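To fix ideas, we reproduce below a protein record of this kind.
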Amino acid sequence: MLKKILKILLALIVLLAITFGIGYAIYNEPLPVGSIGPEADALAVKMQKSLNYRSFKRTRFLEWSFRNGKHTYFWDKERNVVNVSWDGFIVNLNLSNRSLSMTSKNNKSITGVQRNKLIEKAFSLFNNDSFWLIAPFKVFDKGTTRSLVPLGRGENGLLVTYSSGGDTPGDSYLWKLGSNGFPESYQMWVKILPIGGLEATWDNWQIMESGVFLPKSHKLGPISLDMGDVKAYQ
């Protein structure tokens, strides 16, 4: 009986390996090489202007969720503090000085080693989940490189590489924009994904109370990413 189970497990592993190999061969793309210069920066500015970047700068509060509400956020940009909630945990995360952050579960404070782990997890969650909300406004962040990549038919994409910041420096994103500069999708070359060039859409753009445009959802292949009840206000 044990030998039969082991044979089945081995067959499943081989099948998964073959499936991954086929998927890798079909979908994996090398990171494109673009041209760095003022034209790339101008395209990045066009994207930000289309989304009312000035309104984003003036926005103080942002609210959203991720993974169907499993992670929720209330971000005070002025104070640089964000409340991160998941599985009953609440971390009042001080982005300027993480040592000042506070952690709790079911209204009971958490201290010691667990507190430190929760703070680091909240910081990692925030880095990832906020990127899916405000990535277009981070293309001029410190440590970024912008380059123009020809897409064909006279169109260009904006390749942004992050050499620092976040959890995985070195990640790159190729933005594809509409004629008005609105982001429609990006392809990703990121450390957490084994296949390069996977594409995610940026959908359901809505104008917020503060005047900035923010997305409500994304699609990554068959996977839908819902940003929840997105709010941005003063």
